[in-house]
Amino acid sequence: MPRAAVLAAGLATLAFALPHAAAATFEVGPGRPYASIGSVPWESLSAGDQVLIHWRETSYKEKWVIARQGTAAAPIVVRGVPGPAGQLPVIDGNGATTRLALDYWNEERGVIKVGGASIPPDTMPRYIVIESLDVRGARPPYGFTNDAGAASTYAANAAPIYVEKAEHLVIRHCELHDGGNGLFVASSGPAVSRDILVEGNFIHDNGNAASAYEHNSYTAAIGIVFQYNRYGPPTAGASGNGLKDRSAGLVVRYNWIEGGNRQLDLVDAEDSSVIESDPAYRATHVYGNVLIEPAGAGNRQIVHYGGDSGNTDGYRKGTLYFHNNTVVSRRTDRTTLFRLSTNDERAAGSFASSLASCVENDGQGAAADDPFILAPGGGSYLLARPNGPPGDPGRYDDDADGLAAPRDAGIAASPAACP
Q: Is 319 part of a structural domain of the chain?
């Protein structure tokens, strides 16, 4: 056997014999090996590594980027360790410092950024878990010290967690508040975020006063699921939405969403032709949620589906599947359940036989002048039952024109069903 072949065979045997590097655990907090978040080597995290941030009585005023890759079997995990009464560790962006060994752009967009960097080298972050942290303080006029040691200020659309790009990302059991946006997930050009799970979070008091452009969450991805989250109202004076999304393959299930200009604003991809061309862009699933409309809060519409960019060719033009949701309105005027942006959007659900007249339609179709209304009067109302017996105030009857005409379109909710 040639000497080169012998050498190659020997090296291969040695490589298989060597153990893989063990995943590391970095514990941060009082009495832990790492006193500060900034002392963690974020630029060299590897698959299976864990960063455990322990609760302390004072907040961590620190910010950083996650720009590394885990694997499906060994994700990179950033986890808060709660205090004795269940308190989440607080990460406060107001006055935060940045690890100087890092070098990344868009620092003004978030407290925790998931996305691109120069140090570590740019990559698509994937298989990342962020959980059990209270992240706050990302809006003007708040400031921070950047990765060059210079003073800087957050952008109006900053977020406690800003995802510039990511694949296979989980954000779980966090509290996200006091930001321009609470959570922001971006997709631009070919750098599309994919497979995002937003689960069990408390997202509230985000947005900017007198602005409709920032929201409790604002996302664009291929394959994103929101489940078991509680959305509180935006910050006082803000006109943003509860959950605003531009994704393909969106699933919104088992959430409590309260307040906002609209509870759900499900619109066009706008910045990504990759999302727009994905087959899942045409189907959106919303089920098992509680949607709360406070008295006098923002727009009277609960759900907007279609688009808002003005480029109607790129609107969703698919089906909103809306099942088993509870809608509570405390308005004293009318409440509109759906606004569909064009005649190419449709809604289907548990009361599908009634949907022709249960929408407010920009396309001036048959439903345009007959929006669905939850009965006014200052109380709380659930959606009407679609097929009650004759005389039932929640019944819908078909007219000769084939459209469903609502008869007293809301029914009084049991006090036990109301918040």
A: yes
Q: Please tell me the predicted confidence (pLDDT) of residue 332.
A: 78
CA dihedral 80, 81, 85, 89 (to 10 degrees): -40
**Chain mean pLDDT for the chain:** 83
In tens, the pLDDT along 246-304 reads 999 999 999 999 999 999 999 999 989 999 999 999 999 999 999 999 888 878 889 99
Which SS3 state, helix, strand or coil, does residue 336 take? Answer: strand
Helix (H, G, I), strand (E, B) or coil at 413: coil
- Give the whole-angstrom CA distance, residue 322 versus residue 221: 20
196: Cβ–Cβ under 8 A, 6 or more apart, which residues? 163, 166, 169, 171, 185, 219, 221, 223, 224, 225
Q: Does 184 fall in a domain?
A: yes
Distance CA 51, CA 114 (A): 15
Query: How is 181-221 classified by DSSP, letter by letter?
Result: SSEEE--BTTB--EEEEEES-EEES-S-BT-SS--SEEE--
Contacts (Cβ under 8 Å, ≥6 apart) of 78 = 50, 51, 53, 66, 112, 128, 129, 130, 131, 133
DSSP state, residue 362 = T
Q: In the predicted model, is pLDDT for residue 379 greater than 80?
A: no
Q: What is the CATH number of the domain that holds 314?
A: 2.160.20
Residue 46 neighbours by CB under 8 Å, 6+ apart:
21, 23, 24, 68, 70, 76
d(CA 47, CA 25): 11
Q: 1 in a domain, yes or no?
A: no
- DSSP, collapsed to helix, strand or coil, labels residue 231 as strand
Helix (H) or strand (E) holding 75: none
Contact 47, 69 (CB under 8 A): yes
> How is residue 318 annotated by DSSP?
S
For 384, the token pair is 């009407």
Q: Is 6 part of a structural domain of the chain?
A: no
Range of the domain at 72: 22-417
Cis peptide before 120 (omega within 30 of 0): yes
Domain count, the chain: 1
